[in-house]
Write a structure and sequence with these properties.
Largest sheet: 3 strands, mixed
Distance between the termini: 51 Å
Strand order of the largest sheet: 1-3-2
Radius of gyration: 17 Å
Order of helices and strands: HHEEEHHHHHH
Number of strands: 3
Helix content: 55-70%
CATH superfamily: Metalloproteases ("zincins"), catalytic domain
CATH topology: Zincin-like
Number of domains: 1
Length: 181
């Protein structure tokens, strides 16, 4: 088992290094890559995390992040997220996985969710944090709900709990009861 974990770690590290180095071998960039980079830099300024985004040719709608700020977006997720606001939410969501340290209880108190499984809680925390990062960078926070609604119809994953939590959080965000000075 230890040997398998070591092989996985080595493979992940090699992939990580290759993906970081790969842009040095490309001579031209398309407008989508430039758009994604511009959004990532805005989120990076807000979070203080150096963000690098790589787009891979995979039609599965996914995004994931490696430690250190390397975000991988698939062609499939980019086919669903059409606007800069939606892309900012995805990038903010992914980078929040690097930033968040499990201190999610305040968020779950606000939205009233205490009994969800841990992995759903972590995704909801990343959704809310990502939406906040995107908003602070100048993007529309309501794009998060729009994108999660699209994902609900375009993915094998369940987005019901996440969509409900985001909707509840956004409605509470402007409720004076939750405002603090």
């Amino acid at each position: 088992m230890l040997r398998l974990k070591l092989y996985i770690l080595i493979a992940a590290t090699a992939s990580y290094i290759f993906i970081w180095a790969a842009p040095a071998f490309t001579s031209s960039r398309d407008s989508l890559e430039n758009r994604v980079d511009m959004i990532a830099q805005k989120i990076s300024r807000i979070t203080g995390v150096n963000i690098k985004v790589v787009i891979i040719k995979d039609n599965t709608p996914e995004a994931y992040v490696y430690p250190g700020g390397l975000i991988v977006l698939t062609k499939g997720i980019l086919d669903i997220a059409k606007t800069n606001d939606e892309l900012a939410f995805i990038i903010g969501h992914e980078i929040s996985h690097v930033i968040n340290d499990g201190s999610s209880e305040t968020i779950f108190r606000i939205i009233g969710e205490h009994d969800l499984p841990f992995n759903i809680k972590e995704e909801i925390l990343a959704d809310i944090s990502g939406m906040n990062y995107a908003e602070k960078a100048g993007f529309n926070p309501f794009a998060s709900v729009k994108l999660l609604t699209k994902m609900l119809h375009n993915s094998s994953q369940s987005f019901d709990e996440r969509l409900e939590a985001m909707s509840r959080f956004l409605s509470n965000k402007w409720d004076p009861y939750y405002w603090t000075e």
